[in-house]
Amino acid sequence: MTENWIAPSILSADFARLGEEVDNVLAAGADVVHFDVMDNHFVPNLTIGPLVCSALRKHGVTAPIDVHLMIEPVDRIIPDFIEAGASYITFHPEGSVHIDRTLQMIRDAGCKAGLVFNPGTPLHHLDHVMDRLDMILLMSVNPGFGGQSFIPSALDKLREVRKKIDASGHDIRLEIDGGVKIDNIREIKAAGADTFVAGSAIFGKGDYKAIIDEMRSEMAKA
Ligand code: DX5
Ligand code: ZN
Predict the structure, then answer these.
(1) Which atom of ligand 1 is closest in space to residue 148's alpha carbon?
(2) Which domains, ranges and CATH numbers included, belong to the chain?
């Protein structure tokens, strides 16, 4: 059985104290650091890049760093994230002209690779690359900002992808990103997700351990 992972999105952390924020959320029981990269082109916002990823590693972060690229194009910058210590690199099919090549590039460098689907992006991009994936990330908001509401149609999409993963026999994580909260994490888990990104739900509260514990107990009810 795949272990359920909580992946706080540092987009909602206090960037002025980022190292400390990441230490605190990991000490509170988070499994993965979700690292949102935006380019003011693919999405209407601009965030952090490889220098910040590398700074977190130098700060002493050893947990997996899950780099979510909301940028276009992706190929030029991927080696920089690998060098910076990324563990997972996921990208949107719209951000790469050659999806298969990009996935291969990530894996050849020893990193885990994944594809991300916007709410309106069809799943056919999965058809010929299931054997090249370590992660499938479904967006439950349109990417660009934290703090948006969960789009309910993501639940059906999760169930559909869960079936595809199980039928493939490959070891692929199913991650959900956007609007994940204590009050919907149980149904999201029941729909098949095993990796849960949460930004504002965690960093918006003072007590990270209390919220992560509560998320886990909700998931256990699914
Ligand atoms: C949105 C990002 C998310 C975001 C989630 O474009 O990919 O990772 O930080 O934030 P919440 O959990 O606040 O919806
Ligand atoms: Zn994200």
Answers:
(1) 14
(2) 5-220 (3.20.20.70)
